[in-house]
Here is the input.
Amino acid sequence: MPDLNIGGQAVIEGVMMRSKDRIATAVRIPNGEILVKTEDYRSLSSRHKILNIPILRGAIAFVEMLIIGIRTLNFSAEVAINEAEKEEAQKKGTEYQAKAARSNTFWLALSAVLAVALGILIFFFLPLAISNLFKVDKNAVWFNLVAGAIRLTMFVAYVWIISLFGEFKRIFRYHGAEHKAIFAHEVGDELTTERAACHTRFHPRCGTSFILIVALAAIFIYAISDTIYALKTGHPPTLLSRFGIHFSLLPIVAGGSYELLKLSGKTRDNRITRMLIKPGLWLQKITTKEPSMDQLEVGIVALKAALGLVPSNVPVDKARVP
Here is the structure.
């Protein structure tokens, strides 16, 4: 099965799809229509050959995916807020509407920054702090094995807990719709909700699998960095030193993990690859749910828009697909 370089993400009441030259986000609004936003896109590594080398291109792609993901999630949140406030805005006039839009943009941007900072604190710093309590800081390998186990446990617990909430269940269903639509495209199937429904919701190139690969790669790379630090200084790194070193090496960890994820997508029919990607597919039993036909329709519309099969680069308020 070929890897056609199509990726995506579930958002609030919708799906974002990214092809090599376009990003499209489709969101279902209360009146039943699908709102579509598209924009041209070319990654930095595709625009500059000097950046298109292994590891470096992966690190760049990781940052680009993070920015795109936050931006499209904020867009879907703005759509939800605007639709909810539309009636009140119409009553109070355009001045109120403009003030509300500026306020929403500010709070959404602030929320994104705080979410990233909180994620670094909880999933990056906290496992290191907890591992220190086990008194294994003098052994680089054991310390990072413990920290990695704690990080993975916290992540799995986190996604399981949020999967119990109704709003997140809907997002996870859209996640399933994204995967089914991509699978239909990858095998050359007709891009309809009926055909997409026939495909699995578990995809080896999912971001969930990427996070697992990052966690495992981090154990290996950070064990090496901690060992080098101890050899040069004569003592293991302190908690803050370890955090600084590990955080500075995150681009290398992410870049290497990205290359491994891409490789798994290209060799997914290989027996060894199938065995290695199974943990990520198991975790997707939590992070994806079976979508409804309406949700699959949103995923298909987003995919078609990303492939240039529906009108692109038009004002958002006019890009509605019945």
